[in-house]
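Subject: sequence -> structure tokens, single chain

Hey, anyone have a minute? Need the predicted structure for the following. Not urgent.
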Amino acid sequence: MTMNIDRRQLMALGTFGLGALGVPASASLMRGKGFTHGVASGEPAQDSVLLWTRYVGSGDARLTAEISDNADFTSARMVGEVQATTERDFTAKITVDGLSPDRWYFFRFVGPDGSKSVIGRTRTLPQGPVQNFNIGVVGCSNMPFGYFNAYAHAAQNKELDLIIHTGDYLYEYPIGTYPSKEEALAGRKIDPAHEMVQLADYRLRYAAYRSDPDLQRIHQVLPMIPSWDDHEFANDAYKDGAQNHDPSEGDWEVRKRVAERVYREWMPVRDMEFGSPRWREYQIGDLATLFFTESRIGGRDKPVDLAEAIEGQKDVAAALKAFRDDVWQDPDRSMLGAVQEQWFANAMRKSRASGTKWQVWSQQCVMGELVLPQDAKNWVPEDAPPIAQARVAVGALAAQIGLPINFDSWDGYPQARARSLAAAQQADADLIALSGDSHNAWAFELGTQDGAAGVEFAGHSVSSPGFEAYTKGVNPDLVAKAVVGTNEQLQWADTEHRGYMSVALTPEKATSTWHFLDTIRKKSIALRGSQSQTVLRGARTIAS
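Reply:
Had a minute. Here:
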């Protein structure tokens, strides 16, 4: 639900520019002592919200949290005290209770020396009948690839009530790997220079990313509900390991614990014991239930490897068929794990039984089926990296017998996907899946052999490269047209641009708009264009 806010208060927040909230904007970029990384909020409920900041002093410091109905803090009240400790990398967070539903609030922290943080803006969730609610969806933000212009644009989008981050908030790679030194944008420096593996590495990388003014800004003006994807840990992570984790880097379980610990230090999320259920839900009055599942490190089985399955085989066609019919279709392989699968099925039923209109599932990976067009063999230039050429060659071969492009997504777990979509059908849910990870924009109609199950709005990336990085010299419109034409569930695609989604929910319809930023190679919030797709409640298909 978009609420009217006094223009003077918005100006104080700097919504129409990068003006400060009581202090110069540059103050939030301090790297030394004091409030070093701005403020953030998250975990919104009808009567509470979590507030976050980082304060570096000579040791542990006691901070005071204040909240106000207005940006000038004439109605400020203290809501609690919290410690910024060396044990938690000087980060601090506090959950404020006793708030009114469906309200915007302003907040700040006060240091032991009387210094004040920048002023943040947050809001509580509505209860009862709700006529509209607007969600921004962001994901896949690789700092050295370019500026976070999508964050900057979303931060000034006055229609948004909430931000969802679908994951890959940062990347673990050493400098020069992804992107290469030639691809990296000058001035977008990350620490440490090596891959983040140890506790100090993860902390330094979060500190580097959170020094970005546009990332600070979106945290400052909107509450965020984030989910991690694989790169918060290591590339293509699963419960027992990751593609980018080598035994020489230490024990995977230790690395998982370290990564989750630092994530909870630096993000506006509740603290939890390691291994606790990481799935959760939020209620938007009678309009929508937001479900957040974890599909990377809790219950996910190791992705299957098609190239490995056919390597050294004399009869490649027979090997492909055996892989398709046995390994790929194994019903025991899971994306969520059995316990989380059951929770999600039950939660959808409860949401629908309560009269909630939309069941919105935020999760990491693309759910829709994607087979590589045969034309793709002509898209990759001869001087492309060998890995790109190999993926296209294998992908085109696999597509001939109905195998997908990417086994790291839900396409690699077809039986698990079918179970969750069948659960949505059994619950009579109006399901909308929101996903990230692929770096491109997709609108899918999801279904099982029994019919329609819902739709998927998959978001393009903030800065990480997509399809266009592997098809240089090929018209992106031709690429998108070929991909859509090859995949029955796919109704629309953009394989070229960076940006973010905004999803507008009403009782009658849900509309996703993909906002395409003009560039990420220089600071700009200029848009190149946008595209919208709509689903009507009860239809479970994209409106024509």
